[in-house]
Fold:
Amino acid sequence: MKHFLDITRETCPMTFVKVKLKLAQINKGEQLEVLLNEGEPLQNVPRSCEEQGFKVLSNEPTDEAGKHMLVIEK
Amino acid sequence: MTLPTDKKKVSIVCFSGDFDKIVAAFTIATGAAATNREVTMFFTFWGLNALKKNKGRAATGNSIMAKAFNFLMGGLNNLPLSRLNFFGASPKLMTGMMKKHNVATLPELVEAAHALGIRIVACEMAMHILEVGKSDMIEEVQDVAGVATFLNESENAHIIFI
Structure:
C-alpha cells in the first residue's frame, strides 16, 4: 500500500516531524510518497530517513519547479 | 561482531519561561526527536509555567506568595516574549505571524513533542518553591526529578540550556 504526504507548506521542524509521525503510522514494507521542497527539506529529509533505517527508493524532481517526490519504504 | 550504535541523545534544560525561548526549546526538541535522537526536556523555574495544566492564570499553591507568583506568571498561554512583550500582546501577534508563514505555533510544537514521545521531566526543587504539585501539571510530565537524576539520564547527551 502506498501512502502520501505533502510537506511543501511546512517549515522546519515540522517537515521532519510530519514524515517521522507518518512513517510511525504505516506498516513495515509499505511505501510513503513525500512531496517536498528543494533546499533544507530535500537535503535533510532523505538523509534522516536513511539514518533511521528506512529505504529511500527514489528521489525525483517533479514537473513543478523546486519540488521533489521521495518514495520511502518502511 | 559489531555492536549496535547507541541512539544520539539530546537533553534540553528549559529554564526560561519566555515564549520565544520555549518555542526555540520545542523546535530543537521536536527536530531532534524526528531525526532519531532520544530527547529529554527538563523544565525548571520559569520553564515550569509551560507545563501547568491550567494554561491561563490560576492561583496555584498554598501560601499567599506562591499563589501570587503563580497567578502573575500564568501558564502556557501567558508566556511573555523576552523582548518587546507589550503587556502580553506580542506573543499573540507573534503567533499570528507564525501562522501566516506556516511556522508551527507553540501549541502545535508541544503536541508534536508529545506525539514523538519526548521525555518531559519537571524539576522537583522548582515545584517545591512555587508549590506546584504533579496534579497541577499536564499528564505528559513523565517524571519529577532533581539535578542528579537529570545528569545521570543526560550522560553522553548534548545538554542545551535555554
Chain A touches chain B at residues 9-14, 16-17, 19-21, 44, 48, 51-52 (CB under 8 Å). Chain A has two helices and four strands. Chain A has a mean pLDDT of 95.
